[in-house]
Task: inverse folding
């Protein structure tokens, strides 16, 4: 019962993050949209892991996603600076 509740919670959170990402894309906040999408995907993966009966890792990988995306953000900032 508790596991079903956890799965449902992760799925709902994933849907909310993906909805937020859509809204962020509409207002040209692409970097934030990528982060929301990554977090939503992580939550969906967590629900699948639980559904399959496996035990998820206790440590999340948000910092690794941020590190991977830093060069993209720097390029965007340079482009914005040049255009202003």
Result:
């Amino acid at each position: 019962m508790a596991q079903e509740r956890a799965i449902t919670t992760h799925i709902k959170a994933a849907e909310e993050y993906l909805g937020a990402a859509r809204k962020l894309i509409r207002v040209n906040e692409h970097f934030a949209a990528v982060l929301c999408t990554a977090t939503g995907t992580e939550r969906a993966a967590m629900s699948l892991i639980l559904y399959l009966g496996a035990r998820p890792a206790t440590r999340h990988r948000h910092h690794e996603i941020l590190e991977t995306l830093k060069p993209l953000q720097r390029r965007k900032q340079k482009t914005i600076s040049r255009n202003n």
Observations:
- Residues 2-26 form the longest helix (25 residues).
- The chain is about 80% helix and 0% strand.
- Residues 27 and 33 are 10 Å apart (CA to CA).
- The mean pLDDT is 83.
